[in-house]
Amino acid sequence: MTTLEFSGVSKRYRVRGAGDMLALDDVSFELSSGRTIALVGQSGSGKSTIAKILTQLERPTSGRILLDGRPIPRRGGGLRRYRQQVRMVFQDPFASLNPYHTIRHHVERPLRLDRIVPAGQVDAETRRLLERVRLDVDRVIDRRPHELSGGQRQRVAIARALASRPSLLVADEPVSMLDVSIRLGVLNLLADLQRESNLGVLYITHDLATARHFSDEIMVLHHGEVVERGVADEVILRPQHPYTRALRDASPDPDAHFAASVTTGSRS
Amino acid sequence: MTTEPGHAPPLLTVSDFSVVYDVEPPVAAVRDVSFELRRGEILGLAGESGCGKTTLAYGIQRLLRPPAVITSGSAVLHDEDGVDVDIARLDPEALRRFRWDRVSMVFQGAMNAHNPVMTIGRQLADVFTTHRPRMSRSERTRECAELLDLVGVGRERLRSYPHELSGGMRQRVMIAMALALKPQLMIMDEPTTALDVLVQREILQQISELRKRFGFSVIFITHDLPLLLEISDRIAVMREGRIVELDDAETIYRGARHEYTRTLLSSFPSLTGERGGFVRAHEGQASAQARPRPALAGGAR
User: Fold this and answer.
1) ipTM, 2 dp
2) Which residue in A has a C-alpha nearest to residue B167's C-alpha?
3) How many C-beta atoms lie closer than 10 Å to residue A147's C-beta?
4) Residues of B in contact with A255 (CB under 8 A)
């Protein structure tokens, strides 16, 4: 059981000529293994700043981040061990894989760098990871990213993130760049992996519908502040904060749209 | 939003339209597409990347360049003055006059296509200098100001540069530009895809109001089927270059006949209703129904 605690975290960016920009304002939450939290909000609301701070690409201006009660080391082996624990899947699978390297290289690298398994087992572990993300190992392992579809690439990125056996995963819009009919496949995969490995997942998205179905809890971020949080269904079906309500009402909802005209119909 | 253009007279008739990208091997991007667009109607064109929806939209207006070749079919605009215009037969000068005047387009990613060193006002005025050369400068300025008011940007932005506007505002300017000559058909290619839901909703309402006011027809292209279901009168679903299903939005929603349409529909979990093909994280066993997910839409993905 791993718990990451964000406590009173604020982040201020200096903007030249425009004073300061408060990207995060006193944000607190806990992410524990086995739980999925969705972080929703418009662009500019601070979602990605949270992801960057979680993965220590940015440091907060104030506030604390604790992993199992301990602060995150600023450098060296401690920071490295933290990053093994908290991994990230990025939005763009076309940009997050190196075009010069094979799929094998991408997945092996964290295994070797972090000495996750002995050198003799790297190949077997690489294959196991690719199997876990339901890729046809023999067909993809020696290919380069451009030979794969967007969905396959995102699966490689997920396999790479899982290589260091993390307990927490930050998924920043992991399917928004993928084609519609494969999005759910990738989300379903993430949900399966989350269950199998008891991962804690922070699902960052602007899509309220998948946030509702994919997560236990939803946090709504607005101008760097958490304005509402709660059980996923509650937040979407009975939003309390006006901003959450506005977001929900603006999202396409054909079920509600057509329910208004005749008796309720449900689609397959 | 569900105004009934009912059985309004047709504005555009597309018949057996085919486009091939003449590369090695040739790619049949649009295959024998036929449909009729009614006056005042919003027709949603849905499909995934590579299905041919943008190629079709470009093809209708003859905006395609080699290696794309229109191999068969025609697109005929039934002009409001009673003349049928076969777009394929227009000579270059007639085509130049025709475009933007009868059919305008909001291109994909258009909000990032403004000229960064020209004010919004000058870019709008360009449309009039090109297509209404006899218009005086003061008339042009007045028209541009009115257009900006009309799309909710406001005339005080005439002298703004694109970088001074938000993405939503820039997209509204593009809509103003497409509206400038009061065309009979506006083709919109993913006009709200890069925008936030709140901004998206405002812009959709704007489009719907403008359509009511001016009576133009819209071909609205997007992969976002839930959105199309809400705003369209009819929806055409494309796959591998063909229209596999074309029907009223409500019929598509309640009783889509083609299996691909149903797959697309279930790819979007519902905001307030059922979850489609989605498996919630805690329901251990229920995953069987959604697990086998055949790779859809062939070719280069």
Assistant:
1) 0.81
2) A43
3) 13
4) 270-274
Residue B193 is assigned to a structural domain of this protein:
no
Cα-based distances in Å from A241 to A2, A222, A229, A251: 30, 11, 10, 16
DSSP A268: -
- Copy the structure tokens of residue A86: 């908290």
Please give, rounded to a whole number of angstroms, the shortest distance from the CA of B231 to a CA of chain A.
10
The architecture of the domain spanning A3-259 is 3-Layer(aba) Sandwich (3.40)
Instruction: Compute the distance between CA of residue B84 and CA of residue B106 in angstroms, rounded to an integer.
Output: 24
Give the Cα-Cα-Cα angle B294, B258, B186 (nearest 5 degrees): 105
Assess if residue B123 is contained within a domain: no
Which chain A positions have a beta carbon within 8 Å of B287's beta carbon? 188, 192
**Residue B30 included in any domain:** yes
Segments of chain A with pLDDT less than 50? 263-268
- The rounded distance, in Å, linking the Cα atoms of B187 and B205 is 16
Crossing angle (nearest 10°) for helices B120-131 and B137-150: 120
User: Which structure tokens are listed for A101?
Assistant: 């390297």
Q: Which residues of B touch A209 (CB under 8 A)?
A: 226, 268-271
- Comparing alpha-carbon positions, the chain B residue that sits nearest to A37 is B281
Tell whether B244 is covered by a domain: yes
Q: Could you tell me the CATH number of the domain that includes residue B228?
A: 3.40.50.300
Provide the number of structural domains found in chain B.
1
B278 touches chain A (CB under 8 A): yes
Number of residue pairs across A and B with CB atoms under 8 Å? 142
- Which ranges of A92-149 does DSSP label H, i.e. alpha helix? 103-113, 122-132, 137-140
Question: Mutual orientation of helices B167-179 and B137-150 as an angle, nearest 10°?
Answer: 130
- φ, ψ of residue B86 in degrees (nearest 5): -85, 105
Contact A48, A221 (CB under 8 A): no
Task: Return the closest-CA partner of residue B185 out of B12, B4, B6.
Answer: B12
Question: Average pLDDT, stretch B49-77?
Answer: 93
Domain boundaries, chain A: 3-259
Minimum distance, in Å, between the CA of residue B215 and any CA atom of chain A: 23
Q: What is the pLDDT of residues B248-293, one digit of tens each?
A: 999 999 999 999 999 898 888 888 886 655 654 334 333 333 333 3
* pTM of structure: 0.85
Contact flag A265-B275 (C-beta cutoff 8 Å) = no
Handedness of CA A163, A119, A137, A177 (dihedral sign): positive
Residue B219 CA to residue B186 CA, distance in Å, equals 6
pLDDT of residue B7: 67
CB proximity list for B208: less than 8 A, separation 6 or greater: B1, B42, B231
Cα–chain center distance at B257: 24
Beta-strand pair B27-38/B42-46: unpaired
Q: Judge contact between A47 and A202, C-beta under 8 A.
A: no
pLDDT band at B187 (very low <50, low <70, confident <90, very high): very high
